[in-house]
Specification:
The protein is α/β, with parallel strands linked by helices. It folds into two domains: 1-224, 3-Layer(aba) Sandwich (Rossmann fold); 226-332, Helicase, Ruva Protein, domain 3 (Orthogonal Bundle), CATH 1.10.8. It is 47% helix and 16% strand. Strand 6 and strand 7 form a beta hairpin.
């Protein structure tokens, strides 16, 4: 590995450690959640945060906006939200001389970090307004292509319990999230720290560590990190073993309706590099592939009716495939 690249990786690792320290001042505990969201941003991707209300998802995104030095916006998705409420619209203005002209008013999507709160409460028509933005980093309005900010990340939240008045995200949109991050209840010690830190006269403030340009540079470093052949083969073994239509996927043929596509393998390749960097290592390992299997694959697979009737869960299926496909290498 080139000496200059090693220095950049080590310097970026130190900067990320400072960023995590700053985040933890306002978002206490939940290190796994923080690492996964940071990994998605380092990869240039988007993250879907799934958890009950009151677990700090909005607080985390707001803190990330400060720490990463990004212009952030927040959209509260509701059933009556329209695409123009997200993208913006053209309005006809009359000048002082009586002339008329159209002026484009940007919607909240024109930012660098977008929090899509309760994304599954919007109608499919409105959800689809995000598809082009999440993939191409641009939107098309009135036939004109309008680029978004760089970098551009969507951190969406979803309530896994309350389903009344919601619209499940289509598979094409779920596939555009690099990772699904499950936000669980904090343990007792963490919850005690949260109580003491957030109910006093003053709260700790996060400080900026990155800039937009610095994050773009970090994303370039991630793509230059080396990946060993064993890691590449482990990713291919895992992804292909989760496809019921493939020869490698016979073990899940009676369990899954459909499995992950090539975008899942791309996500694993990038996410394992980001995890290695966050852990202070220069290259990913097969154990990183196993550790990231659930967050990268869960939202890219679906159980069939028979599996749901048996009480199967996607997490258990993924764990089983990881054990079968990666074996002892994953535990090393």
């Amino acid at each position: 590995m080139a000496e200059a690249l090693v220095e950049r990786i080590e310097s970026l690792g130190e900067q990320l450690a400072q960023a995590k320290t700053s985040i933890n001042r306002r978002f206490i505990g939940q290190e796994r959640v923080v690492d996964l969201v940071l990994a998605s941003m380092l990869c240039g991707g988007h993250a879907l945060l799934v958890g009950l209300p009151g677990l700090g998802k909005t607080r985390l995104v707001d803190t990330l906006s400060t720490v990463m030095g990004l212009k952030g916006n927040r959209i509260q998705f509701t059933p009556d939200l329209m695409p123009a409420d997200i993208l913006g619209s053209e309005v006809l203005e009359t000048g002082a001389d009586g002339s008329r002209a159209f002026r484009f008013i940007e919607g909240p999507i024109f930012c660098q970090l977008l929090m899509a709160d309760e994304i599954n409460r919007a109608s499919p028509r409105t959800q689809s307004a995000l598809l082009q933005a999440m993939q191409e980093r641009e939107v098309t309005i009135a036939g004109e292509h309008r680029p978004l900010g760089r970098p551009f990340h969507v951190l969406a939240t979803q309530n896994p319990i309350e389903q009344e008045g919601t619209y499940p995200l289509p598979e094409a949109q779920l596939d555009r999230f690099l990772v699904q991050v499950d936000v669980d209840y904090p343990d007792r010690a963490t919850e005690r720290d949260i109580l003491l830190a957030t109910t006093g006269a003053e709260e700790a403030e996060a400080h900026q560590v990155f800039t937009a340009a610095g994050l773009l540079d970090a994303q370039e470093v991630i793509r230059r990190m080396p990946v060993g052949d064993s890691v590449v083969e482990a990713i291919l073994d895992l992804v292909r073993a989760c496809r019921p239509g493939e020869a490698e996927g016979t073990a899940v043929a009676d369990t899954l309706s459909w499995g992950p596509g090539p975008r899942a393998a791309q996500a694993l390749m990038l996410a394992t590099r980001a995890k290695a960097l966050l852990d202070g290592r220069l290259a990913p390992s097969v154990a990183d592939v196993a550790d990231l299997a659930r967050p990268v694959l869960t939202h890219r697979m679906a159980l069939n009716f028979a599996a749901r009737a048996r009480g199967e869960t996607l997490g258990a299926v993924i764990d089983r495939v990881v054990a079968q496909s990666l074996g002892q290498e994953a535990a090393a």
